[in-house]
Amino acid sequence: MGVEGPKNVKLATEIADGWLPMFIPPSRMDLYAGLSFYLGGMGAKAKNFHLELMERMGYGAAAHRVQELFLAGERGEAVAAPRR
Predict the structure, then answer these.
(1) pTM above 0.85, yes or no
(2) Least crowded by CB within 10 Å, which of 9, 11, 54, 61?
(3) Do the Cβ atoms of 67 and 81 come closer than 8 Å?
(4) Residue 63 to residue 54: CA distance in whole angstroms
(5) Could you say which DSSP state residue 40 is in?
(6) Which of these, 83, 53, 55, 49, lies nearest to 69 by C-alpha position?
(7) Which of 74, 79, 76, 68 is CA-nearest to residue 45?
(8) 3-state DSSP helix/strand/coil percent for the chain, to nearest 5?
(9) pLDDT tens digits for 4-25?
(10) What is the dihedral of CA 50, 51, 55, 56, to 10 degrees?
């Protein structure tokens, strides 16, 4: 069961053996630079569940910057943005 939203995470912890979070904090982007694709390339600009998850984790400004760069075609910059 793939879940991100708070209600689905709660459900997963009730019916499954555990929950493995999908993303890592932006401070560890060296481990997972592909996060920019999820923030910028998955979902609609106005409704992106991955971006919303980063907002809930407290990284909304960085996530929106990554999305903005990715959608502008600046994919290298989008990958590098959270490390600045």
Answers:
(1) no
(2) 61
(3) no
(4) 6
(5) H
(6) 83
(7) 68
(8) 60, 0, 40
(9) 778 887 888 788 876 666 666 6
(10) -20
- Judge contact between 78 and 44, C-beta under 8 A: no
Give dist(CA 40, CA 63) in Å, integer: 9
CA-based torsion, 78, 79, 83, 84: positive or negative:
negative
Our measurement of the distance from residue 41's CA atom to the centroid of its chain's CA atoms, rounded to an integer in Å, reads 11
- CA–CA gap between residue 18 and residue 40 (Å, rounded): 28
- Spatial distance between the Cα atoms of 52 and 48, rounded to a whole number of angstroms: 6
d(CA 29, CA 75): 15
Structure tokens at 10: 């709660």
